[in-house]
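Researcher: Please predict.
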Amino acid sequence: MSTSDTAGESIASRVQAEIERALQRNIKGLEFLGSRGPAVGVTPRDLIHQRGTLALYHYRPMVDEIYRVPLLLVMAVTNRGYILDLAPGQSLVEFLLRQGYDVFMIDWNPPRADEKKLRLEDYTLDFIPESLRCVQHATGEEDVTLVGYCMGGVLSTIYTALHPDGPVKNLAVFTTPVDFTQMKLFSKWSDKRHFDVDRLVDTVGNAPSEMIYAGFDMLRPADRIAGQVQLWDNLWNDEFVKSYRMFDRWATDVLPLPGELFRQTTKEFMWENRLYKNELRIGGRRVDLKSIKVPLFHAIAEHDHIVPYDAAKPLVAQAGSRDKEEVVLKGGHVSVVAGSNAVKRLWPKLDAWLGARST
């Protein structure tokens, strides 16, 4: 066979493969439009306490022997908890259960209209303490480890700083901002010279989820289009489509924020940067990060476009803990805690750190 014949067959083979892939894209595209997508948050759990926006869940153990100190996961108030429980094999919650931890989670509901006056005081002096008491009652243990993600990490940090003699034995947080001046685009978006937060809250009550989502979307305005192009190119790949749909569903499933909480965090964090300055006052008490004495673990994403490294790094530096560790991991704000990147990087480090401090 001549060289030209071989080249011709190679070209024909590639053309045929591309035609097959194009057909698969169209077939899968119709399936994509006609389906609800994969189920998320399927690890068995029981609702053990609920009050308005607060929902406290207890995940059912997966092994016979569990660590003495239970874990209370605290989600960001704008996002659903299933990012930590996407699917079997891609679930931080499932991983922790299989490693022998007793896992609870605060997974917020959308705030009702009559909850528009909720403030940081309600979350850190009421909701978290109440949830800790429920965990203590359910387990019979006095000690609890707080694990907070993003704004859930901020709430957990504030609670721990205000309660140095409380039940928190360990504090582990992910992508938790402290210096809000380093969240550059958010700072510009909420600039008090242009942004009338009082008028907004007084007019609409709770901050709408569409507005919160738009704020996140503005950080990388081209990402959605680029993601859709990538999805089209990979519609033939079932695993890619499944992963895309899970992450995309979570990213767009944003919760409204209580109006007063939105007003307070805009002024106290974005405008005055009081948490970083140790000037934040909650219920008349100053939040001093040096008051945190318990073992502290903070995982920061190297490529986090929501909470950049400079916004997150002051936490470990300012905390008064002797036993404290900061780890900077490859990944973004979401991929550092969920997906294949997290499975290999964050989860084993978190397990090793918790395991040594949970007996």
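Model: Residues 27-33 have pLDDT under 50 and may be disordered.
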